[in-house]
Amino acid sequence: MKIKKTNLNRLVLSFIFMFSFNVSAEVDPFKVIETMSSKIRLSKDGTGIVKDVHCYGCDFNMLKITTASKASKGDDDVSIFEVRGLKDVMLMVSFDPNTREVQYIRW
């Protein structure tokens, strides 16, 4: 019985170790805010801005959407242009606070 308990302990510790790492698409450093879809403006080339940004430690109120910015709906990556068609939807926007560039928009 002692061998089984030892193996079980090792297995549990292995799972805890494996799942303790955060896997995300963002690149550090990043912050995440919630905003309404009406605060996002996109141009025809996929760039744009996020207006009225309020976050702890931020001394700015606008973010830049670049051609490197990505979007996802649920677990699926989608085109950034799908943000245009959203009406009154709460979005999660992750961004680099140093460059003020949006990395991901999720809903």
Description:
The protein has 1 helix and 8 strands, in the order H-E-E-E-E-E-E-E-E. With 107 residues, it is α+β, with helices and mostly antiparallel strands. It is elongated, with a radius of gyration of 19 Å.
What key attributes describe this structure?
3-stranded antiparallel β-sheet; alpha+beta
Helix and strand arrangement:
Blueprint: H1 2-19, E1 31-36, E2 40-42, E3 48-51, E4 62-65, E5 70-73, E6 76-78, E7 90-96, E8 101-106
Parallel strand pairs: 5-8
Antiparallel strand pairs: 1-7, 2-3, 3-4, 5-6, 7-8
Summarize the structure.
The chain has one helix spanning 2-19; strands at 31-36, 40-42, 48-51, 62-65, 70-73, 76-78, 90-96, 101-106.
Order of helices and strands: HEEEEEEEE
Q: Structural class of the secondary structure composition?
A: alpha+beta
**Unreliable spans:** none
Distance between the termini: 49 Å
Instruction: Classify the helix fraction into a percent range.
Output: 10-25%
Number of structural domains: 1
User: How is the largest sheet built, in terms of strand order?
Assistant: 1-7-8-5-6
Q: How many runs of DSSP E, i.e. beta strands?
A: 8
Strand content: 25-35%
Q: How can the largest sheet be summarized?
A: 5 strands, mixed
Backbone shape = elongated
The number of helical segments is: 1
| Global mean pLDDT | 85
Radius of gyration: 19 Å
